[in-house]
Predict the structure.
Amino acid sequence: MPIFAKEEKPAGAAGAAGTAGAAGTVGAAGAAGTVSAMGAAEAAGALVKDVSTASFMADVIEASRQVPVIVDLWAPWCGPCKQLGPILEKVVREAKGKLRLAKVNIDENPQIAQQFRVQSIPAVFAVAGGRVVDGFVGALPESQVKAFVERLKGEAGADEGEAQIAEALAEATRLLEEGDAGTASAIFGQILQHVPDNRAALGGLARAYLKSGDLARAKELLAKVPEEHAGDPEIAAARSALELAEQAKASGPIDELKARSLANPADHQARFDYANALYAAGRQGEAMDELLELLRRDRKWNDEAARKQLLKLFEALGPGNPLVAGGRRRLSSLLFS
């Protein structure tokens, strides 16, 4: 039921029925109307606020998307509420901005009590990202309230850490694609210091080593990845890139291979090696062209080596690379023509 749904008979504090639910989405629709961005920013600014039905969306729901909000449901006639309230305010202020406290007088705001299905007060709920994530009923001692707050801070910190890692991965990947393998490898390495089994960072670091020509370090790093993670896209892509780099290293000088291929179009091995050398030189589109031409000339050559090499190249580049989509279409056209 939406928090701000209209009631025909507003319930008083003593009449709020049901049991306290500690999980689920807090309703977002209601008679309070749309909250402006300015109102939401102001709501998130104060550590402790008295909240009404009209301000609940801004002071709790929207504010909880920035930092977790503790909702304290109380009433003036409630003795235990008077004991718990100051403790909540103290521990929230000690959190120094990592949490907010929203105090709701349920005598004046019975709809909020009904939405939370409050049976007795004081009732406390933790809201993060617009959802109730924890809660308790009754006046707890300060030590238990601090433990409750620490759990909430820990969950918020974990979410923030995951976001920071995702942002760092995106930045390192961008740098690697732009050719800055040194900075990219440093960022991937920092991520692995915090999360040693992060496969995206492992694969990224291996590809950064390959980009800088250090095949030995890339091979050593990938050898340490457990076999159960071999199929992870990031690891598989790095291993395909390593195999291609090793093949390219053994192929020979690119100009010589080009000359051999042009001199004898039927020399499939020369064309295959030339494609590998093109890939190693960063000319992936030309490498695809040569492999597709080889496939067109002799699909079965060397146990379908051209098709297998194309698939390996697609995997190494990743599905987001624009060359891959076009290459796959051309491959399908050749195979099913």
Q: What stands out?
A: The longest helix spans residues 142-177. The chain has three domains: 13-140, 158-226, 251-335. Residues 1-45 have pLDDT under 50 and may be disordered.
